[in-house]
Amino acid sequence: MISLTLFGLFILFLLVGTPIAISLGLASTAALIISGKVGTNFIPQGLVTSIDSFPLMAVPFFILSGELMGQGGLSQRLLNTGKIFFGRYSGGLAIIAVATCVFFAAISGSGPATVAAIGAILFPAMAREGYRPSFSAGLVASAGSLGVIIPPSIPMVIYATSANVSVTKMFMAGIIPGLLIGLSLILFAWWQSRRDGQKPQSERISGREALVILWDAKWALLVPVIILGGIYGGIFTPTEAAAVGVAYGLIVGLFIYRELKLRTLYMIFASAALTTATVMLIVGTATVFGRVLAIERIPAMLAELVTETVSNPLVLLAILNVLLLIIGTFMETLAAIIIMTPILLPLVTALGISPEHFGIIMIVNLAIGMVTPPVGVNLFVASRVAQISLTDVIRGAMRPLVLLLILLLVITYVPGLSLWLPSLLGM
User: Fold this and answer.
1) Is the peptide bond before 415 cis (omega within 30 degrees of 0)?
2) Which of 28, 34, 272, 324 is the most buried (most CB within 10 A)?
3) Distance between CA atoms of 375 and 154, rounded to whole angstroms?
C-alpha cells in the first residue's frame, strides 16, 4: 500500500506537469503520513542532512566554473583550436562541434551547459556553411551528453556520494568511455557530412596562424590539465579542484581574455545560484524519497527477488540497461541516480559487478536519456539555441542516438574500459 502510494503519486504529479523535486517531496510526504512509521519532521531533517556533504560542495563550484568559462571566452578559443586540426576535412565544422564538446565537457561537468556554450557559437557558423539545422542541433545535443560522462561530472559526484565510492575513482573510470563516445561521434559527423556533400572549409590556416591560435588558446587548454591533473596527482580533492576552477575562470575571463565584465558577473553568479538551488532541491527530495523506500524495505525485497530469479550478471546488466533507459526518458538525471542507486547497487554487487563499472553504466544510460523525449533536456536546450522546432532536433538526433546505444552495450560488457585506468593507477 505504501509503495503504491509513493510511486503512484509520484507518477501522477509528473504527468500533470509538477516539477520533479516537488513531485518527489509531495509523494514522500503522503507516503510517510499514511505509513505512520516516522514523523513528518523526517522530511526537513532529510533535506538538510542529504546535502550536508563535503563531496557535494563540488557541485555548485563546478556549475559556477562552467558558467564562467563558457562566457569568459574559453569556448571560442577551443573552437578556434579545433579548426586547426579538423577544418581541412569534409564536414570540418561538424567534427569541430563534437571535438569541442569533448574538451568543454572536461570543463563544465554538465550536459546542457555544454550544448548551450558550443551551440551558441557553432549553430550560426554551421548554418552559413550549409549544414542542415536538424543535423547540427541533433549532433551537438548528442555530443553534449559527454558533459556528464567525461570528468569532472556532476552526476558522477552525486553517484559517488550515493554509492559511497571515491569521486576520484569515478572520474578515472569515465575517461576511456567518454573518449570512446567522443571519437565515435567524430567519425559519425565526418561520415554524415560526406553523405550530405559538405566540403572542407575554404580558408586554409597557415603554420604561423596555427601557432597564434594555439598560443591564444593556451589558457583554455590548460583547464583540464590543472583540474584533472591536480585531482589525479593528489594535489587537491575534487571539491577543492572545483573551487580552483572557479578562481581560474575568474582570473582568465577578467584579466587575460577580458571577456568577463564586472557588470555581467552578477548575472553569471545569479544563474549559477539558481541552477545550484534547483540541483540541491532535487538531491534533497530524491534522498528523502529513497529513504522512504528504505523504510519500506523496497530495495531489499527487490534485491531478494532479482537474485533469486537472475543468477547471470550478463542477463542482469541487460535488464538494468532497459530499465535505466526507460527511467532516463522521463526522470531527471540526478534524481534518478539518487533514487535508483540504493535500489540497484546491491543487485549488481551481489553478482560481483564493480560499483564503479555500474556507476559508468548508469551515467551513460541517463546521459542517453538527455537526448530522448519527453524529458531530453539537451534536446530542449539545442532547440532553444538553434531556434528550430523540437521535432527537428529529435529527427537530427536519431542516428547519433543509435550510435550511443551501441556504445552503451560495448561499455556494459567490456568492464575493462571503465576499470582499466583506476586499476593502472592503483586506485
Assistant:
1) no
2) 28
3) 18
Helix (H, G, I), strand (E, B) or coil at 88: coil
Give the tens place of pLDDT for each residue, 70-127. 778 777 787 778 777 776 777 788 888 898 888 888 777 777 878 887 887 788 878 8
Task: Kindly report each contact of residues 220-224 with a partner whose C-beta sits within 8 Å and lies 24 or more positions away, as own/partner.
Answer: 220/69, 220/73, 220/74, 220/75, 220/77, 220/78, 220/81, 220/252, 221/77, 221/78, 221/81, 223/69, 223/74, 223/106, 223/107, 223/248, 224/103, 224/106, 224/107
**Distance from CA of residue 295 to its chain's centroid?**
30
Q: Is 413 exposed, middle or buried (0-12, 13-18, 19+ CB in 10 A)?
A: middle
How far apart are the C-alpha atoms of 161 and 59, rounded to whole Å? 12
Cα atoms in the Cβ-side hemisphere of radius 13 Å centred on 289: 30
Q: Which DSSP state fits 109? A: -
Residue 151: phi and psi, rounded to 5, are -70, 155
Q: Cα separation of 233 and 258, whole Å?
A: 30
Band (188; pLDDT cuts 50, 70, 90): very high
Query: Cell triple for residue 366?
Result: 541517463
C-alpha cell belonging to residue 261: 565584465
Read off the pTM.
Answer: 0.81
Count Cβ atoms below 10 Å from residue 234 Cβ, excluding itself: 8
- Averaged pLDDT score across all residues of the chain: 83
Do residues 114 and 153 lie in contact, with contact meaning Cβ atoms separated by under 8 Å? no
Candidates 241, 203, 247; CA nearest to 224 is 241
Alpha carbon 114 to its chain's center: 9
For residue 427, pLDDT over 60 is answered with no
User: Residue 48 and residue 302: Cα distance in Å, rounded?
Assistant: 28
CA 47 centroid distance within chain: 23
